Amino acid sequence: MLPTTNLVWIALTAIVYLGGSFAALPSSIKVCSRNDPELSRCVIEAVNDLRPRLATGKISDQFQIPPLEPLALATVNMDRGAELKATFSELLVSGPSKFKIDNLKVNIEKLIFDFNIFLPKLSFKGKYDLKIKLLLLNIAGVGDLSGVIENNQARVKLLCEKYAKDGKEYVRVKKLVVRIQIEKGRFDMKDLFRGDPVLSQAGNQFINENSRLFLDELTPGLERSLSDTFKATANEIMQQATFDEIFPA
């Protein structure tokens, strides 16, 4: 449910490393020519080669990114009026470095990138503040949150464009679309019903039996906010290099 954020971060990592989007390109990043007839294969291999470095965030001695292990997420909110209100914060996710990229389609002329990301298993922990009122059932609590989500998939599409700056040609993301699918999740919320052990167990059982409610409610909002956030992040990174540095001939 919650750690879908890392899917988009991984997606951006894959595209940013397509040709190495930094003028001083670390030797650990494999460069893929835009004229390579097997460009998609080259990109996937380049990202796979980087997988251990992505986990720690240390691409080289001079260049670091936020680590994928663990991945820190921003606060996530859910609001269905009186029926359901929830806030999840201080989230840390383990397992995102096990990602797999497939079905990558690159249109270098139109600067369109379309691909799938699969994450077999993600473990997360953080804080929660929850209130549920459904029929005769009232569940409430504030405390520690932990859980696992499995078989996470995302379809990512980036539409880029060229622009001129200081007499040079650069590239930026014009639009980023994310479609997220999560097969199943298990959650453990401590201190439901102010720590009453019997009611807390019953509350967690209800939440896990109805986990689809949480997944379906969160997904659209996450897709929108992640698209906006990571579009801005990608453009901040990509403005550091020209088009030819990002996509060498």
Automatic annotation (TrEMBL):
SMART domains reported for this sequence? JHBP (SM00700)
Swiss-Prot/TrEMBL GO biological process terms: circadian rhythm
User: By its UniProt entry, which Pfam families does this protein fall under?
Assistant: JHBP
Q: Name one GO cellular component term.
A: extracellular space
Q: Keywords in UniProt for this one?
A: Biological rhythms, Signal
Q: Which residues cross the membrane?
A: none
- Identify the InterPro entries for this entry: Haemolymph_juvenile_hormone-bd, To_sf
Protein family (similarity comment): Belongs to the TO family.
Record's protein name: Hemolymph juvenile hormone binding protein
Biological source species: Anopheles gambiae (African malaria mosquito)
